[in-house]
Amino acid sequence: MSRQIDRRSFLRRGAAGAAALAVGPGLLAACSTDEPGSAGNPGPGSSPRSGGTLRAAFVGGGAAETLDFFNGPSALDLVRARAWHGTLGNLDPSGPDGVRYGVLKGIDIADDLSAYTLHVRPGVRFTDGSRLTSADILHSLSALAARSKLPVYRLAAANFDLARAKADGDLKVVLPTLRPIADGRLILCQGNFLVVKDGTKAFRESMPSCGPFRLTGFTAGQGSAFERYDDHYGHVPHLDGLELRSIADSTARAGALTGGAVDFAHDLSPVTARTLADDAKVELAPTKSPYLVGLSFQLNMSAEPFDDPRVREAFKLAVDREAMVKTVFYGNAEIGNDLPSLGFPDYADGIPQRAHDPGRARALLEEAGADGVKVQLTTGPETPGMVEMATLFVEDLKKIGVRASVRELPPGQLYADFPAYSALPLAGSYQMPVPALSTYQMNTAGGSPSAFGWKKSETDALVAQARAERDPERARELGTRAQRTRWDEGNQVVPVFKPNLNAQAKGVDGISDDLFEQFPGFSRASLA
Hints:
The protein has 15 helices and 21 strands. It is α+β, with helices and mostly antiparallel strands.
């Protein structure tokens, strides 16, 4: 019997801890599947467990945090959801077809790429005892994900005809495609498509779930508490419980770790991480390629002066990328080339690296009649480095004659009103580690709000051709052509790819085994 976490005591500890740490004592054909660890219903005692409760600190969204992960913009909203709800699958470059399945046991693709058949893993149960069926998958995709305000969840509706999707019995879902696609498994198994019960409209603590943990307590801006779900379909967690704490400041997250208040601190700033390097009780656990976070600036082509391609090119040429890597990340980052998804197989790595050329940038602005233009860059500390990079970018822009300034929002607020964010003329951003063509469609294709005014039907067509191509070499050729167009004409400046600088107490293990390391799920984590 798993240990119940006392909700009131947890929330008292979380509130007191957050207040103390704000000051801090110093630095405070179907593919193979990820089958369950044992046959039949796992149940209590089916796998060895370390026990104990792991405590983890993340940047949250303050009062805007929500249990409705389909519309929750903060990293903590998705981390909470991944601990609580079952996932269709995760990206796994080492697995067959690049995925590891969750509540699905496999996906078949029609020979003509006209439909995908999702095979539901038999015997998956919600915490209320009911079995997960194809109806739950359909509801989660068509009624919830498709209506999300966040681009990452609308990706399924952009590729599959969800209005014609249907259940074929209790354990099959047939998803017709809107156009031929060969890489649909990589779309459906990104780690963020999670499953709730058919008919779910409101998200609350007591709702049934089928993830590795049961939610036992939640207070927005403070934290959440979980206990192990012993009937989890796959690997039954080693841990008895899990606590996720919302701590916006990087120094405070590190202080919580070194002070013993938490066992894992997520996404620390480079400065903070350097101070932990010699701590014998702590180990750094940065993510590695391709799980690097692209930090970027979005230039809204629907607003002046970014409707002029010369201005967009000038802003790209103005960036001193090497200085950003050295100054903000102490060299522990990769230089970006204004394209997302560095390290994934479909990334166009043959395109020349864009130079730092302030002289040419200034000439382009003068040619466009934009010399001395005034701009405001809106950003926020959604992940460490965003604000520091924005500050350096503004200084680079001033050197080419732009009257630039930074507007910094509080933690968790940059994406809170996504329509308002998408209308900004110049905004900071970061990208989840997702393959290049999926990233293009998620953020750019068809003039979606997150495209910041990019509308190039010919590039959309190239991406569609690449994604419909079964021959990997031909798909890569087409994808590279599409990315070259984005490099030449696009409205995204991507100067840096940085690891998530996570840190954990010695003896913590297995967190990265959950995949999707930017948003860990903790089902395989253990304590010494």
